[in-house]
Amino acid sequence: MDRDDENDPEYFAEDDGDVHDDAADHDMDDDADEPSSLDHTSLEFSTSAPAAEIRDFCLSKFRTMDFIMEPSLMEFLNRYFASDGDAASAIEALSTSYEGLAQYVNLFAEWLIILGDEPTKVKELIENYMENILVSSFDPRKADRIFLQEGGNTHWLNDLIQHKHWRKMIYKLVETHGESLMLNFTIKLIADAGHQNEIPTTITAVSQTDVFTRVFDSAMGRLIDRQENALLDFARLVANGESTFLVAQLVMYSLAYEAPGGLNLMRIMQDVSDSVKNQHILHILLIIARGAAWPRAMQAVASMSSKKSLNPADIHILHQMYIIANPADSLGPPPVALLRFRDFLDLLVESLFSLESKIPSDHRIRYISLLAYAASVVEKWTTPSKKSPIPMRLEINRDDVKVTQEMIRKALEFIAKGPNDIHTELQNIFTVLRFPVISMGMIRWIGKTVKQASYFKFAGESRNTPVHLIILDEIASLHPYLHEKILDLLMELFETAWPQMDMLIRLELQKMFLDRMIHLVSCGCVLPVLRFVRAAYAKQDTDVSLFRHFVVELVDIMAPPYSDELMQLLLPLVSDKDITGTLRTADGKDSISVFLQDCKAST
Question: Cα–Cα distance between 62 and 137 in angstroms, integer?
Answer without folding.
Answer: 24
